[in-house]
Amino acid sequence: MQSKTALSARFPAARPRRMRRDEFSRRLMRENGLTPADFIYPVFVLEGSGEREAVTSMPGVERLSIDLLVKEAREVAALGIPAMALFPVTPQSAKSLDAREAFNPDGLAQRAVRALKDALPDLGVITDVALDPFTTHGQDGLLDETGYVMNEATVEVLVKQAVSHAAAGADVVAPSDMMDGRIGAVRSALESAGHIHTRILAYSAKYASSFYGPFRDAVGSAANLGGGNKYTYQMDPANSDEALREVELDLNEGADMVMVKPGMPYLDIVRRVKESFGVPTFAYQVSGEYAMLKAASMNGWLDERAVVMESLLCFKRAGADGILTYFAKTAAEWLAE
Ligand code: PBG
Description:
Protein name: Delta-aminolevulinic acid dehydratase
Bound molecules: ligand PBG
Oligomer: single chain
Active site: 206 (schiff-base intermediate with substrate), 261 (schiff-base intermediate with substrate)
CATH architecture: Alpha-Beta Barrel
CATH superfamily: Aldolase class I
Distance between the termini: 56 Å
Strand order of the largest sheet: 1-4-5-6-7-8-9-10
EC number: 4.2.1.24
GO biological process, one term: protoporphyrinogen IX biosynthetic process
Number of domains: 1
GO molecular function: porphobilinogen synthase activity; zinc ion binding
Structural class: alpha/beta
Strand content: 15-25%
Number of helices: 14
Helix content: 40-55%
Shape: globular
């Protein structure tokens, strides 16, 4: 009896390190992996032609005019990335209190969609449905006299915007505004207009996050927003049950896919959503997450390739079916090596 105890103390029966010893057994037991099919590539679109501008707070990210965007899209498609998400940089002169540029059939987003679908019919095109690039105050909706974002009045404009994107050929519309009832309203308007195949990717659990800062620089809404915040419509980072409630509502209203945003600090939400609903679930590694990884890498404090691939893999482990990431193209290139 005594010798048996001594033996097992010296030789544990379970040795997890056995399976970690060699690359072949590490590969065999690997539960998750990344492929280019996991990525959605967000891009910033500029007016003009032959135009490219660096985004200062997102080193390596550029705003591109439509002609250059089409070139970029060819490379993205060739790498096996299924879709791009478009974010227009609206000239200040086209912004207004009523955000009417949002549903201009010849607006920048609508023209970009047509150009991309024309050149690359098989590449998925996702459009952002929200008013912040089009309002003079940088909020995602229309304001009442107290400065509160009005729900129904905003949804009316979002619906027009979504239908104009679908009419231009967008495969997926992605409402990122967090108004109540907008998924149902967009869905029924799309159906009525005959856009029965247009998918809805709902930003269902979108938090009022400070990690969006560099994005607001990139689309030029930061200055308009000034000291303003989005606390009356985006979610409180303290909450988790509320995210499930939002996802449930959006699914009931006709969302085909749901999204959690931001990504890395919110992977617990991704896990809960995936386990609770089992629907196509996406997560957005947002601009501030990109900026953090990039800044530390540029300083030589982190190994860029290693941390980027690890961060993306962790989204998959948490249950995400796909990841919106500014690293999509670079990561797909690394995967191809
Ligand atoms: C706008 C929108 C934002 C992002 C995507 N769509 C910013 C915001 O809500 O203020 C952020 C994306 C990022 O930070 O990368 N509705």
